[in-house]
Write a structure and sequence with these properties.
Distance between the termini: 34 Å
CATH topology: Creatine Amidinohydrolase
Largest sheet: 5 strands, antiparallel
Number of domains: 1
Number of helices: 5
Order of helices and strands: HHEEEEEHHEEEHEEEEEEE
Strand order of the largest sheet: 8-7-9-14-15
CATH architecture: Alpha-Beta Complex
Radius of gyration: 17 Å
Strand content: 15-25%
Helix content: 25-40%
Structural class: alpha+beta
């Protein structure tokens, strides 16, 4: 499918959705306190979406198995869980690394954003993983501009992660986004032959969800029996940061948090 370029009006609509998503994710982050369950955080997101007329794009997201869509309004992944963790009765504990991932639609336009937070006092190793993963996303944003090939940016991201001794998950990548949560193109955080075949030039009007997923050990992952939760095969910890980004004539705009552009790697 062709890459859909967005008009200034469409980007404004996505900006509004992105700001709502940012605010809800912030409330979830602030509610990550002693004794809270991942299910309670998920219901908080549901209630906040209801207040503004937003729609959770994760809820009932289809699989290849009929009638077994995703059960949560958000994805909440803990420690060795990389993505698509199902919210439920799990109580968060001191030192946990918790990924909060919210994809939503507001007035038919989507945004997708995620962050990993440390619960309570976390280890220096855990903090370093968070810093490197967030730094990887920042590095990508700072290098995005019209006319640049995505493979150039993906290569920078991969080298940055590996230089710090970590691995980039390859089974899951970023994506185009707009009126649908998932649009073309695929937006990888690494470079290999397959991804080079789908390489593309950044153009003003593109809207992309960029989302590095970084793990401490080997990059291999596996799917749990619940059919959704993806974990590291060697049980080492993971982190995940994501923004919805619009390519502009002069660079980019972060639709899910404009303040993030000021960060430096």
């Amino acid at each position: 499918m062709p890459i859909v370029l967005k008009s200034s009006r469409e980007i404004a609509m996505m900006r509004r959705a992105g700001q709502v998503a940012r605010d809800i994710l912030g409330k979830m982050r602030d509610a990550t306190v002693a004794g809270v369950t991942t299910g309670e955080l998920d219901l908080l997101a549901r209630d906040e979406l209801d207040k503004v007329g937003g729609v959770a794009m994760s809820k009932n997201y289809p699989t290849y198995k009929a009638g077994e869509g995703f059960p949560g309004y958000t994805c909440i992944s803990v420690n060795e869980e990389v993505v698509h963790g199902i919210p439920g009765k799990r109580v968060l504990r001191e030192g946990d690394l918790v990924t909060l991932d919210l994809a939503m639609s507001l007035e038919s336009y989507c945004s997708d954003t995620a962050l990993t937070v440390g619960f309570g006092k976390i280890s220096s190793a855990g903090q370093r993983l968070l810093d490197v993963t967030k730094g990887t996303l920042t590095l990508a944003i700072q290098n995005m501009k019209p006319g640049r090939r995505w493979s150039d940016i993906a290569r920078l991201m991969q080298h940055y992660v590996e230089r710090h001794g970590y691995s980039v998950v390859r089974e899951f990548v970023g994506h185009g986004i707009g009126r649908s949560m998932h649009e073309d193109p695929k937006v990888p955080n690494f470079v290999n032959f397959e991804q080079l075949r789908g390489d593309f030039l950044l153009r003003a009007g593109m809207t992309l969800a960029v989302e590095p997923m970084v793990v401490v050990g080997r990059r291999d992952v596996k799917l749990l029996k619940d059919g959704w939760t993806v974990v590291t095969e060697d049980a080492t910890r993971a982190a995940h940061f994501e923004h919805t980004i619009a390519v502009t004539a002069s660079g980019v705009e972060i639709l899910t948090d404009p303040q993030e552009v000021e960060l430096k790697v």
